[in-house]
Amino acid sequence: MGSEWKWDCVTMDFVTGLPLTPSKKDVVWVYVSKIVRLHGVPLSIISDRDPRFTSRFLKKLQDALGTKLSFSTAFHPKLTDSRRD
């Protein structure tokens, strides 16, 4: 069974290497003014463990908005055996 609402659970990641603006807070305003304004607050967000997602500020913000934060597991590449069959 699919989600009842298209904005129930959102997966997020940051794009890096983009030019910075003087305020460096544009991502917050884009999130609020463009995404939340149009779609409402998601019930849950799944992200990696980037410090921007695990910061105290973002945790407090999501608590205030009622959004559950979940984090994906860390990447663990499979160890390969040096012997070849």
TrEMBL record:
GO terms for molecular function: nucleic acid binding. Transmembrane segments: none annotated. It comes from the Eukaryota. This is Integrase.
